[in-house]
Amino acid sequence: MINLRKMNKDDYYKIYKWCLNKEVYEWFEQRKLSYKEIEEKYNRKIKEQDIYIINYDNTDIGLVQIYKYKDNLDILKKYNNIYEFDIFIGENNYLNKGIGKYIVEYIKNLIYSKYNANYIILRPFKRNIRAIKCYKKCNFIEIYNYIDKNTIGNIEEIIVLINKKRG
Q1: Taking each helix axis from N to C terminus, what angle separates 35-48 and 12-19, rounded to the nearest 10 degrees?
Q2: Residue 139 has pLDDT above 90, yes or no
Q3: pTM score > 0.85 for this model?
Q4: For domain 2-164, is the CATH number 3.90.470.20?
Q5: Residue 160 near residue 75 (C-beta atoms within 8 A)
Q6: What is the C-alpha to C-alpha distance for residues 125 and 157, in angstroms, rounded to an integer?
Q7: I need a labelling partner for 83 at 20 to 30 A (CA). Which of 64, 90, 103, 115 fits?
Q8: Which runs of E-coded beta strand occur in the chain?
Q9: How far is Cα 67 from Cα 86, in angstroms, rounded to an integer?
């Protein structure tokens, strides 16, 4: 069973521990963050975004950040009321088990119902094949790609995937 709960300051150590894991930081920050960096980053972010801890079968396994899309990619100007989310599973025992698909579907439903979004976009690195496969299984469609810098300044190809609210 999947549940989300609002992240709080008591979760910082857990997030720090997850971000030491190469399976997380390779896609999420591209480097290990110190506890102080986690604290500074999330002290600011919890005021600006909805950030949740993902709980699966009574175990905290990851994090999701939900926010209104703010960039100005030309390809997305024809869409309105777009939301976006960033997600990772931080517990290795829950990777490669097919759980991600259920979590993404849960988050999609939450965004469409709670935030009344018309569209959801995701922007993973093109080389994050596992995530892209998961998103496509959840009916996200690839519409665009572009080149940008990751959080440490390296050039990355980004894939833009979109999902439209049904009904």
Answers
A1: 120
A2: yes
A3: yes
A4: no
A5: yes
A6: 6
A7: 90
A8: 2-6, 50-56, 59-68, 82-89, 119-122, 141-149, 155-164
A9: 9
